[in-house]
Hints:
Elements: E1 23-24, E2 30-37, H1 53-73, E3 82-83, E4 89-95, E5 100-107, E6 114-116, E7 140-141, H2 147-152, E8 156-157, E9 163-169, E10 174-186, E11 194-208, E12 217-220, H3 228-231, E13 239-243, E14 254-259, E15 270-273, E16 284-285, E17 287-292, E18 295-298, H4 303-308, E19 315-317, E20 324-326, H5 328-341, E21 357-359, E22 374-378, E23 381-385, H6 387-390, E24 391-395, E25 398-401, E26 403-405, E27 411-412, E28 420-425, E29 430-435
Parallel strand pairs: 1-11, 3-9, 5-12, 6-11, 19-27, 20-26
Antiparallel strand pairs: 2-4, 2-14, 4-5, 4-10, 6-12, 7-10, 8-9, 9-10, 10-11, 13-14, 13-28, 15-29, 16-19, 17-18, 17-22, 21-25, 22-23, 24-25, 28-29
Amino acid sequence: MAPRLITFTSFFFFFLLHHSSVRSLTRPTGFTTDLIHREYSPLSPFYDPSQTKFDRLHNIIHRSFSRLSKLSSSPNTIQSQITSIPGEYLMNVSIGTPPFGILGIADTGSDLTWTQCPPCIQCFKQNSPLFNPKNSSTYKNVPCNSRPCAAVGTATCSPNNYCGYRYSYGDRSFTQGDIAVDSFTFGSTSGRPITIPNVVFGCGHENGGTFNEFSSGIVGLGGGPLSIISQLKDSINGKFSYCLVPLNEQSKTSKINFGSNAVVSGSGVVSTPLIAKSPSTYYYLNLEKITVGNETLEVKASSNARKQGDSEGNIIIDSGTTLTVLPPDLYSDLESKVKESVNKDPTNDSQGLFSLCYSIGDNGEVQNLNLPNITFHFTGADVDLTAAETFLEVEEGLVCLTIVPNDELSIFGNLSQMNFLVGYDLVKKHVYFKRTDCTKQ
């Protein structure tokens, strides 16, 4: 996994594979697969039916804060061995010939895809069988003097001239093993899985920390050279998109689209440029203004950005991070404008996680609070969020603003992206937004 700031959100994706009529992807095409939220979906192995909706929400919020702190403290370089805590969605993918299914944490803030492999010097407990490279006729180790090995940044070299890797995550989890290539098979909602040959990934022989028995590793969806997205770039014309269903609609599944299926078009589409910055793992956008109700707030460049002449690309978009994160000064102004709109005094959050909360009483009538819409004005794209998308009921009778301050990093998180079709075009270098009912995708 590449260096990272927080958690898609995080968000985790779960690919549902169909093993009939597999076809090889040798020219540009399109396919769509399901994404399953790690905490909320009954289809996730992490799902705990004994938990309340508030238990689940607190779990993802705590992970989001942990991810944020680690992303902010990590050195701003692709060569860093410290990467962020993984995100909120799971993905099923198959590796090898014949295809062997694994369940990984899908992460737009990570590049290297890896899974546990025998022989295990140290492996965390995993309920499903481990991928064994000896059973795949298409598995190959990557030599040290190769582009994939150079892209690892912290690569090691064995006496046999095979490339190795080691990554440490923000929560002190780690993985170490061999860099290899093999065929990857992705499930499709059409019922015809897609096979991609010669995908670079990590075969981890030493893995530990906070990983648990339900997953096998990481599926990297970042923008760096080793990510699945970058490796499939020619086959999918550099396009992918996703549509995330709201947390309270998890009887429906979110979707991730690739290639021609990922085109975002039609009425209401807005787009903003992707800004090239380091580390290349993250997807940077330029946020110009925020409107709260009828009041507009200008986004000011930090003193450090002004000194470096680097005010462009001042926020990352991340499906793995739950919360949206803003600089403290901007957040303070936003909070003040929200308070001016609401006809009620704020209430303290008993867990101390959020700065701005309101009591809605036993009747739960949020509309009586007069919560304002909040619009994020990216360069060329205005993304309007309703109160239902910026406030969440975090405990019985208490709603809180899900935008939080941070000194180091700004993030447009997954709660702000739900019920939007969000498309990435890495050729045209743009991100697209279209208001969509994601439960109907």
